[in-house]
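Following the same procedure, sequence and fold were stored together, as reproduced here:

>
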Amino acid sequence: MRSAHSAQTGTSEYRVEKSRIPASITLSTGDNVEGSFFVAGASAHGSIPERVAEILNAESGFFPFEVGDAPATRTVLYNRTQILTVSLTDGEARRDPGYDVASPREVSLHLSDGRRLSGSVRIHRPEGRDRLSDWARHPDRFRYLEVGDTTVIVNVAHVIELSEDDPS
């Protein structure tokens, strides 16, 4: 049964409005793809906007990604297992719940494509259990690495080596 509003407007009551978040994806092939993720105005965790990392960690398989320039945009489906990194310029990592109280660690990552990335990770664990090894054991496949003003979402399945940088 359709609601009165959806019957009047011709839209489905199941339609979820989405916004586009520009991103650059690095694939396991070495290709970089520029485009946009589709995110909902509210995440499964409350009224805050959905984050790209939530989309990537939500399930396995494929996700939609918009590529191309208007008017020739198209939506393609990418396999999550083939994503090495996703770069965002919107500061998404800072919107992660608990960001301000999480322990920051300066780290270096060696990825399966040969790249080395350095930046900061936040470890959301109680004091004494906030080591880099605790971050490495977290169940989410896609994790934040902050590199300057860029949020890089890293597929940990493609991390060969992880080390903490000397803070001095």
